[in-house]
Design a protein that fits this description.
The chain has 529 residues and is α/β, with parallel strands linked by helices. Helices cover 44% and strands 21% of the residues. It has helices at residues 2-24, 34-53, 65-95, 99-113, 132-135, 143-161, 195-208, 269-280, 296-304, 341-348, 364-375, 389-399, 403-409, 434-442, 478-485, 491-515, 521-527, and strands at residues 122-125, 166-171, 176-183, 186-194, 220-228, 231-242, 245-253, 284-290, 314-318, 329-332, 355-358, 379-385, 412-422, 428-429, 451-452, 464-475. The strands form 3 sheets. The protein has a 7-stranded antiparallel beta sheet with strand order 1-5-6-7-2-3-4. Helix 13 runs antiparallel to helix 15 (478-485).
C-alpha cells in the first residue's frame, strides 16, 4: 500500500501542476485545456494502476476483488484515498499509536523505498557465476525454455518469500509432480505441475547446480546461488531416483548470521547468562544437541555472536556452511576431496585458534580431537544428533570416548527443540472445559494467558508464523564430572533418568512460552510430548 500512497501523492502534485498551467493558460489561446488534459491522464493512470494493485491488496477480500477492480477502473483515486484511510486507521488501532504517527511512518517508508530495487527480481547462478539463462544458451533459448526458466525462478522466489527452509519436488504419479515448501518445520503443498513441465524444471535446477542432467537414478548432490535485491542466498540440492520419476530436495542456506542472537532464538535471561559465562572462558566445550531440524546450527551461530570475533581467532568446520561469518575462518567439509571433520580439526589446531566450531560430531576421532582441544586452551562449540543432554553423554561414550576425557573436556550441554509461534493476526484466547481449567489451576498455571491457533491469510491458514527454541541447559559441575570419570553412572540409568528429566525441563520451558501467549499447548505437545 506504500506504492499506492506514493501514487496518490503524485496525483496531488500533478493536479497542482495542472492548476498552475490552467491559471497561465488564460493568457494563451490553446485548442484544449492543459489542466484538464493532465488531470484526465493522471486520473486514467491511477485508475489502471489501482485496478492492478487491488488484486494483491490484503485490504480487499478475495470474494470482492473482481468488483473492486471494475470499480477502480472508474473511481480509482477515490477508492485509493478510502483504502488509505482504512489502512491508517487499522494500523493505528493494532499498534495503539496515533493516526499522525502512522501517517509519518508511511511517509518515511515511501521516501526510503524511492530508488529501491524490485524485490521480486531473482537470478539463479551456478558456483562459477553463470546465470541460468547463460547455461541455456546465453539468453537466446527457445520460448518454451524461457517459460521453464521463469517457472524455476518463480518457485525459488516464492520459497524465499515464504521463509521456507526446504523445497521438495516429488512425483505423485505419472501425470504430475508436487512442489512443497517446509515452512516453520511443517511441509505445505504450494503447486502441482504436469510431469513434462516439471521434468524441465528439475533439469534446469540440476544444470545450474552443476549436476548431471542425464543421470536420473543414482543420487547426486549440487549447489547454486540466487541473487536477489536483499543479497545472495545459497542452496544445496540433492536428487534421487523414485517411483514415477526423480525426487529433488533443495535446502535453503541463509547467508547472514547477524539475525541470530540468544535473545531472538528464545533463550531466557538466566540461560543467556550461563552461555555468556561459558563462552567468556578461554577453554572448555559447549555441546548443542537435539534431533534433526531442531535448530542446533542456528543456536551455534547465536552463541558465536556472543564472542568478539575481532580479538579471538574463530575457525569453523561445517557441512555445509549455512551462514557467512565475516570475521571468522570457515572450512567446508568435502569427502570427495578427502576433507573430513577429523582431518580439518587436526589442521585447525596448527592455525593458532582461540575458538573452534565443529558443525557435527559424527565419529570417535572427531569427538576425541574436539574434547582434547577443549583441554589445551581452546573454546570448542559443537553439535551432535541426540534427543537429550543425557543421551549426548551416552552417545559420546558409545562412540568410544573415554569417560576421563569426556568428564575433563565437556562443560555445558544444551538440548533444544523448536516450537512454532502463534500468528499475531489471528490467535485467540484458548477455550477450556471446566475439568481442564481445574487441572490447570491445580498445577498453578494461569490459563487466561493461553492462546490457540486459528488461521488466516497471513499465516496461510496454519495459525502459526515463525519459530523459537526451548532449551534445557546442563552445566557439568565437579560432582557430575567426578561421577562420569569414575564410571559410577550407569549408561542405562543415565539414559532413562536423563531423558525423563530433559523432557520435563523442556516441557517447563515450553509451558512458560504457552502461558506468555507465544505458542499453544497443542504445539508444545506436538514437539515435546
Amino acid at each position: 500500500m506504500g506504492m499506492l500512497a506514493f501514487a496518490g501523492c503524485f496525483q496531488v502534485q500533478y493536479l497542482n501542476a495542472g492548476a498552475i498551467l490552467g491559471a497561465t493558460s488564460s493568457s494563451v489561446s490553446l485548442p484544449f485545456d492543459p489542466a484538464r488534459l493532465i488531470g484526465l491522464i493522471v486520473w486514467v493512470y491511477v485508475c489502471f494502476y489501482f485496478a492492478q494493485r487491488a488484486q494483491f491488496s490484503p485490504l480487499v477480500p478475495k470474494n470482492y476483488k473482481s468488483v473492486v477492480k471494475i470499480a477502480a477502473l472508474f473511481t480509482g483515486p477515490l477508492l485509493l484515498f478510502v483504502l488509505q484511510i482504512i489502512d491508517v486507521r487499522k494500523k493505528s488501532l493494532e499498534s495503539s499509536r496515533g493516526v499522525f504517527a502512522v501517517i509519518r511512518e508511511k511517509i518515511e517508508h515511501i521516501s526510503s523505498g524511492l530508488g529501491s530495487k524490485d524485490k521480486s527480481a531473482i537470478q539463479l547462478v551456478d558456483s562459477s557465476g553463470r546465470s541460468i539463462t547463460d547455461i541455456y544458451g546465453h539468453g537466446k533459448g527457445k520460448h518454451k525454455d524461457s517459460h521453464v526458466l521463469k517457472l524455476t525462478e518463480q518457485i525459488v522466489a516464492d520459497a524465499l518469500e515464504e521463509q521456507a527452509s526446504d523445497i521438495l519436488i516429488d512425483p505423485t504419479d505419472e501425470q504430475a509432480y508436487t512442489v512443497r515448501f517446509r515452512v516453520d518445520g511443517v511441509l505445505r503443498e504450494v503447486n502441482r505441475i504436469e510431469t513434462r513441465e516439471c521434468l524441465a524444471v528439475i533439469n534446469s535446477i540440476k544444470a545450474v547446480a552443476n549436476m548431471d542432467i542425464a543421470e536420473r537414478r543414482r543420487p547426486q548432490d549440487g549447489a547454486f546461488l540466487a541473487k536477489t535485491a536483499d543479497g545472495t542466498v545459497s542452496f544445496r540440492v540433492a536428487s534421487a531416483g523414485a517411483v514415477n520419476g526423480e525426487k529433488l530436495s533443495i535446502r535453503v542456506l541463509r547467508q547472514s548470521a547477524d539475525m541470530f542472537t540468544l535473545t531472538n532464538i528464545g533463550m531466557t535471561s538466566k540461560q543467556r547468562v550461563i552461555i555468556h559465562d561459558a563462552v567468556a572462558r578461554p577453554s572448555g566445550m559447549v555441546l548443542i544437541c537435539g534431533p534433526t531440524g531442531s535448530g542446533k546450527t542456528t543456536t551455534m551461530y547465536a552463541v558465536l555472536e556472543e564472542i568478539d570475533l575481532f580479538t579471538r581467532n574463530v575457525i569453523t568446520v561445517e557441512d555445509p556452511i549455512e551462514c557467512v561469518l565475516p570475521n571468522a575462518s570457515q572450512i567446508e567439509v568435502n569427502p570427495k576431496a578427502d576433507i573430513t571433520f577429523a582431518k580439518s580439526l587436526r589442521s585447525i589446531l596448527r592455525q593458532d585458534p582461540d575458538v573452534i566450531c565443529v558443525g557435527e560430531i559424527r565419529d570417535e576421532e572427531t569427538a576425541a580431537i574436539a574434547l582434547r582441544a577443549s583441554q589445551t586452551g581452546h573454546l570448542v562449540l559443537a553439535t551432535i544428533h541426540t534427543s537429550s543432554n543425557a543421551a549426548a553423554l551416552v552417545r559420546l561414550l558409545d562412540l568410544g570416548v573415554s569417560s576421563l576425557l569426556l568428564s575433563s573436556g565437556l562443560d555445558v550441554l544444551i538440548s533444544q527443540r523448536l516450537v512454532r509461534r502463534l500468528c499475531k493476526d489471528c490467535k485467540k484466547p484458548a477455550e477450556f472445559s471446566k475439568s481442564q481449567i481445574h487441572d490447570l489451576t491445580k498445577k498453578g498455571i494461569d490459563y487466561k494467558g493461553i492462546f490457540q491457533a486459528v488461521g488466516c491469510e497471513q499465516c496461510h491458514g496454519t495459525g502459526y508464523r515463525g519459530r523459537l527454541g526451548i532449551f534445557d541447559i546442563l552445566t557439568l559441575d565437579q560432582q557430575l564430572k567426578a561421577g562420569i570419570a569414575g564410571g559410577d553412572m550407569s549408561i542405562d540409568h543415565l539414559k532413562k533418568e536423563g531423558d525423563q528429566k530433559g523432557r520435563s525441563n523442556l516441557q517447563k520451558q515450553g509451558l512458560s512460552k504457552v502461558v506468555s501467549g507465544i505458542t499453544s499447548l497443542e504445539e508444545l505437545k506436538r514437539v515435546v510430548g
